[in-house]
Write a structure and sequence with these properties.
By secondary structure, this protein is mainly alpha-helical. It is 52% helix and 0% strand. It has helices at 45-61, 76-88, 100-116, 125-138, 145-165, 184-200, 206-220, 238-253, 257-267, 281-295, 297-313, 332-340.
């Protein structure tokens, strides 16, 4: 393996409170080109342009306080964390290069929250998971050494919130309490951030990981379909399967039959690349592309060209991506950029 930062190996996205909306007629994912040999490991010119347009859109919509949010000012922790990682996937980090000032403001927004929070909790567990993940990937990657120490402290506090909130069955749900239950979506989001922090050097007990494995395998994985359900192993969905598979791979279960069955479940879906048929489109592919990276080159090489060209085809004229007709949530644009940027491997979150 090759690692491009001190964090070694990590992972990555999502946000189940963003409900699927009616999809616009514009959102028809027809690949722009037939995949060519070698394309899987490279960005096409069209995809690279799409990423740059997406980053410009993020720059134009950044709030004065450094955050990203929806137009109503909600979901700032999630939007800012995802926005930072969208720039990082192209090698842009706080304090460096032409986007240094914008990324410094975003970093400062996250650190301001830690300073003001008595416990280090960043809100709903979805947002807290993304916040923890962004801190983990930022640690050691900023120009300001004093800020790197602050990031370490904030990250360690955020991890403690997660460890305290794990349910008896091994998962997580909306609030930072172990008596709140668990579901696949929140569990995947939270564990991805926890695994990232662990690989960055923060202590995460082996027992915590073992309990996650038990929850995913015994409570929400369906042996007949190979997919994962939201709560329980019935009603399996592509979104939960993508998140559950990736989390299980990061638990060290990549080569097990039950995880390989979940990869087949994703690959055999006839609607996986069509946003008119697939709810939670960006959320699903945010996890799925990383699950394919972990599954191996053969899987990734077949998957990436299809989602790459699909995303290019549904980008909006202003450089953004939308979940259907809604402009109410900040996740589609940074998620699309992160998915498109998978070949770069500039941050550990996208390394095998």
């Amino acid at each position: 393996m090759k690692y491009l930062s001190k964090n070694i190996l990590t992972l990555c996205v999502a946000l189940c409170w963003w409900y699927p909306m009616e999809l616009s007629a514009q959102a028809t994912a027809t690949p722009t080109d037939a995949p060519k040999e070698g394309d899987a490991l490279e960005l096409t010119e069209a995809a690279d342009r799409a990423m740059e347009r997406g980053l410009q859109h993020l720059l134009s919509t950044q709030n004065p306080d450094g955050s990203w949010s929806n137009p109503e000012g909600d979901f700032k922790m999630a939007g800012t964390s995802l926005g930072l990682m969208a720039f990082m996937v192209k090698g842009h980090f706080p304090g460096f290069g032409r986007h240094a000032a914008a990324l410094d403001r975003a970093k400062d927004f996250l650190l301001k929250h830690d300073k003001e929070s008595p416990t280090g909790y960043a809100g709903a567990m979805y947002e807290h998971g993304l916040y923890t993940l962004a801190l983990s990937e930022l640690w050691g990657m900023t120009a300001n050494k004093e800020d790197n120490k602050k990031i370490q402290v904030a990250l360690e506090r955020a991890v403690q919130v997660i460890l305290r909130a794990q349910s008896p069955l091994g998962g997580w749900r909306y609030h930072a309490r172990p008596d709140c239950g668990q579901d696949t979506s929140v569990t995947a989001m939270v564990f991805v951030s926890l695994a990232s922090a662990r690989q960055a050097g923060v202590l995460v007990p082996t027992e915590t990981i073992d309990r996650v494995v038990g929850y995913l395998r015994d409570q929400v994985w369906n042996e007949q379909t190979g997919g994962f359900g939201y709560q329980g192993n019935t009603g399996t969905t592509l979104a939960c399967t993508a998140g559950g598979a990736y989390a299980a791979q990061l638990c060290g279960m990549r080569d097990t039959e039950w995880v390989q069955a979940s990869i087949r479940y994703l690959e055999n879906s006839p609607k996986i690349f069509n946003p008119e048929e697939l709810g939670y489109y960006f959320y699903t592919h945010y996890y799925a592309i990383q699950a394919m990276v972990q599954a191996g080159e053969e899987h990734y090489a077949k998957w990436y060209p299809q989602i790459r060209d699909a995303l290019v085809s549904i980008q909006q004229p202003d450089g953004s991506w939308l979940e259907g007709k809604s402009k109410s949530y900040p996740h589609p644009t940074p998620m699309a950029i992160i998915i498109l940027g998978t070949p770069h491997r500039y941050i550990p979150i996208y390394q095998e």
